[in-house]
Amino acid sequence: MFFGKKKKEAPRPRVCAVIPAAGSSHRMGGENKLLLELDGVPVLAHTLAAFERCQMVNDIVIVARETDIVPYHGLCQMYGFEKVRSIVRGGETRTHSVLEGVRSCPEGTDIVAIHDAARPLVSDAVICAAVSAAAEHGGAAPVVPMKDSVKRIADGQVAADVPRESIAAVQTPQCFARSRIESALVRAIRRCLPLTDDCAAFEASGLPVAATEGDYRNIKITTPEDLLIAEALLKRWEE
Ligand code: CTP
Ligand code: MG
């Protein structure tokens, strides 16, 4: 019989996915893009299914516009999502919406995984890599290398090259220690920082964010042609 000391494993963090879904779909033409269908299933249902399936995720909080709360409830019932704990009202900017979501996470949440509802093709591998890195480092976000060359533009002129190796496109889920991201978001809102993602709030508070492996398929549905691309990616996956 083996009497050696058992190695103490770190307790698994409690993870809550916060899904901001309270935007106005302006660039899609105004109709709620999250209720448009991809392969016969609403964009939002694809997104929620990815977190429902992920074994590292315990809970889900959805952030919605007031008028969408009832339709989103119906969608959750229809698809039988069991991890959704609440659907809360969003704010005028994405940062306000995310803060509402973070504040509504169940007690005992260690890590929040903030994921754009508009990224329905996120894989389990991308979610798990970002959650694990956040548990270790405090903050993490998936990135992919840039495919295009990038230039700095000034007065309508190409002013300078930006070395491609020094930049990356950042995706979601962006994952953070819950207590730290809440205060970083509050601070960013108080200082009126114009943020397009949550890493920016974390970094503005002087906190480091680890870069994890993203996926080119994890696109954000923003304009009508993105739906065609997502549909094509889904079809290829199912083959
Ligand atoms: N979002 C949100 N609350 C806001 C603004 C955005 O919850 N006040 C959410 C969107 O629903 C989306 C994600 O943040 O899932 C990323 O935003 P984006 O792709 O820009 O969506 P919209 O803001 O809806 O689109 P647009 O900017 O074209 O209006
Ligand atoms: Mg927007």
Give short descriptive properties of this protein.
binds cytidine-5'-triphosphate; binds magnesium ion; single chain; 7 helices; two-stranded antiparallel ribbon
Describe the structure.
It is built from seven helices and twelve strands. It is an alpha/beta fold and 239 residues long. The strands form three sheets. Strands 1, 4, 5, 6, 7, 10, 11 and 12 form an eight-stranded mixed β-sheet that branches. Helix 2 links the parallel strand 4 and strand 5 (84-89). Helix 5 crosses helix 6. The longest helix has 15 residues, at 224-238. Cytidine-5'-triphosphate (CTP) binds next to strand 1 and helix 3. Cytidine-5'-triphosphate is lined by residues 20-27, 63, 90-94, 97, 116-118, 220, 222.
Alpha-carbon distance between the termini?
Answer: 50 Å
Largest sheet: 8 strands, mixed
Count every beta strand, where a strand is a DSSP E run of 2 or more residues.
12
List segments where confidence is low: pLDDT < 50 over at least 5 consecutive residues: none
Structural category: alpha/beta
Measured by DSSP, the beta-strand proportion falls in: 15-25%
Query: What is the average per-residue confidence, as pLDDT, rounded to a whole number?
Result: 94
Indicate the percent of residues in helices: 25-40%
* Approximate shape: globular
Identify the bound ligands: cytidine-5'-triphosphate, magnesium ion
Radius of gyration over all CA atoms, rounded: 19 Å
H/E topology pattern: EEEHEHEHEHEEEEEHHEH
Annotation field: number of helices: 7
Short description:
This protein is α/β, with parallel strands linked by helices and 239 residues long. It is built from seven helices and twelve strands. 34% of the residues lie in helices and 23% in strands.
